[in-house]
Inverse folding.
């Protein structure tokens, strides 16, 4: 998915603006995105304001990343190396923004089955980039830090999007089965064990958002919200223990030499 520097510098901000415009439509239209959320509740419905609370600071990081993408000069060897990593992310970043913008149209028209297609496209593309393409974060490089934050937060909230939209599209109004509970715990546990602070923090945030939401939406007598809260605590413990025992980041002067296995593990 390689593209030129000049293409990257107009494609990324254009996709951001399209997504931003779609979000305004989603909030200001009638019905708006919150109305659709409240009409369609499932066992993976989060507290909606957690999503808004996530995207506001995440968009600030996007703006900082976009500014740096525009500012860096590929004609300068030192800056070209940093720019290459950023440009490599641009196709995935842009696909994500365009998928989210399209999702909004179908979400607000309550075509949740179609909106789910764009959620899957976005979430899987972001997860693929983070797992298979993203180099380990270099704490001495602003560009590397920003690319890691933007890509991993996109992928992290994408996990919540997959669970939420998929459940309301195909299991609307249903309680969480025993199988759902087991798979949720196992899935988040394994993902937490393979995550750095950024992506792991997003997984914990996803679980907290779900736990708070389900404390309101769950059927009477259900303990699903408490289980999700326990999963959040467990996920936080796993992420913390893993990353304290083996710090995931390195600076250019750290003297830490990575093996191929190290690099694969640090990408998530």
């Amino acid at each position: 998915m390689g593209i030129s520097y000049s293409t990257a510098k107009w494609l990324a901000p254009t996709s951001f603006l399209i997504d931003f415009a779609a979000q305004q439509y989603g909030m200001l239209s009638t019905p708006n995105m919150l109305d659709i959320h409240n009409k369609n509740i499932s066992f993976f419905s989060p507290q909606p304001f957690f999503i808004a609370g996530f995207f506001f600071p995440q968009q600030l990081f996007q703006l900082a990343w976009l500014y740096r993408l525009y500012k860096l000069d590929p004609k300068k060897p030192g800056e070209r190396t940093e720019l290459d990593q950023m440009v490599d992310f641009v196709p995935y970043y842009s696909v994500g923004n365009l998928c989210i913008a399209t999702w909004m149209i179908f979400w607000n028209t309550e075509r949740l089955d179609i909106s789910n297609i764009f959620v899957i496209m976005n979430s899987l593309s972001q997860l693929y980039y983070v797992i298979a393409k993203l180099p380990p974060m270099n704490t001495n490089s602003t560009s590397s830090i920003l690319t890691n934050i933007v890509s991993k937060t996109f992928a992290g909230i994408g996990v919540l999007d997959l669970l939420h939209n998929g459940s309301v599209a195909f299991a609307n109004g249903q309680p969480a089965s025993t199988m759902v509970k087991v798979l949720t715990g196992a899935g988040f546990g394994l993902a937490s064990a393979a995550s750095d602070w950024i992506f792991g923090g997003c997984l914990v945030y996803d679980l907290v958002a779900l736990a708070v939401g389900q404390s309101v939406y769950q059927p009477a007598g259900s303990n699903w919200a408490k289980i999700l809260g326990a999963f959040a605590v467990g996920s936080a413990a796993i992420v913390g223990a893993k990353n304290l025992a083996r710090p995931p980041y390195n600076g250019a002067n750290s003297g830490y030499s990575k093996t191929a296995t190290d690099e694969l593990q640090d990408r998530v």
